[in-house]
Amino acid sequence: MLTIHSALSWWAKSRPDTPALVLGGDRVTYGQLVPWIDRVAARLIDLGVERGDRVNACAANGIDYCVLAFAAMRAGAVIAPLNTRFTAHELAEIVQDHAPRLIFAGDDQASKFTGCGVPVHAMAEVDGLRGGASVAPPREPYPDDCVVIISTSGSTAKPKGVMFSNRSMCDYAMAAAMEDGVLRDGGGVIIVAPLATSAGMVQVVHYSVLGCTLYLEPVFVAERFLQILVEEPIVSFAGAPAFFERIAACEGFAEADLSHIRMVTAGGARVTPRLFQTWAAKGLHIRQTYGQTEAGGNSTVMPERFAAEFPEKVGWGGMFTHHRVVDARGNDVPPGVEGEILIRGPGMMIGYWNNPAATAETIRDGWLHSGDIGVMDERGLLTFIDRIKDIIVSGGLNISAAEIERAVLEFPGVEEVAVIAAHDDRFQETPMVALYPNAPIDVAALIAHCNGRLADYKVPRYVAVRDEPLPRLATGKISKPALRDEYRDAHLTLPRVR
């Protein structure tokens, strides 16, 4: 059957000595992993976990966390990771919505669930089942079972639970292997994104289905990341552009031998020309990709031959994944014309947990409506413009916040930036920049810099230089809702800079 566990079992049989999960000096092979998963799955069933039950997990990235996730799937249940950065109040709302049978928590997280009314188990219980007799859990998972619920970032609304099935996750992994070929024979990959995010848990599943060796890290430390890249047989890694910036800033990056790495991809934000050139000097062309949690991860493939020629583009649809760009009425627009990006492919979510109305609104006639603006060229290559909700409408003209952010990030001394709409008596909305510097910022020089790169109506009228980093969502993304709330009166409290 097409299930995640059947894929893992295949690797345990065909490559039993291949490392599956690595954390520091701790290595678990596929031959060791599958029996461990079976023991934990049997334990979950003994604890009363039924098919379709949710099992929440709240802990730092670790081998035991991955085993718990695979064991829940093996038992026909649903792993529903919880972000360790959430407060007890935020977690209580999600737990109430998920109605889990059990919660597994790290030692530093357990107190957040006091009084939640759900049995809380220590993650150490999973590690305690690493050894022991082989067991065969009394039931098998089904291909169309929901196996994972991932919460969205909440960057535009209250977080929603995105559901994936065995089939959708396996289909996505196999399509990705056929499309780029880099991971067709396994290889080493690094996972540093929290397992509560799609960049964490979904990638763990995808790479494991392909028989890769997953190098887990509980947090991102650039120096440690570079060390792994140099010392271990890593063939591919992915991350946000900020990861690439911090790695490139490490002492020793210029001398590091990365010739064994075959593919690097970035998503979540635009790669600046300067960053692209920095990595190209190492022989690695960053491939920008596009996707979102609901799409199952990346929905585009950027061929290496195009990465250097069209660094601003995010690729085209994969072997089984297709895109459309449509106007407000749902009609396809010609190449070169902006519109909403629609996605259809095997890795798509099967729906939002407990939210059929949102599911029906997002998936219409088999197409996932992304809420993103993009443009497609004659080759079918897609360029991501911005989130629809991040478009600033000034005097009837649409302005992409992301475009302004890219221009500001090129100015020396800017560490973090976000662009939001400020009120304007004449134009209704006007661009405002909130930035966190790593060196003194001359605002007049910054505006002059923007004047040379942006049309006049796109140049920010307000600039807030902050003494502290920009607020973040629990997923690590910059929280524009928090910034909009903080600067709702920017037109009254900040000086106009042009």
TrEMBL record:
Domain AMP-dependent synthetase/ligase: 9-353
Keyword field contains Ligase: yes
Xref: InterPro entries: AMP-bd_C, AMP-bd_C_sf, AMP-dep_synth/lig_dom, ANL_N_sf, ATP-dep_AMP-bd_enzyme
A Pfam family annotated for this UniProt entry: AMP-binding
Domain AMP-binding enzyme C-terminal: 403-477
Keywords, in A-Z order: Ligase
Domain of life, source organism: Bacteria
GO terms for MF: acid-thiol ligase activity
Name this polypeptide is given: Acyl-CoA synthetase (AMP-forming)/AMP-acid ligase II
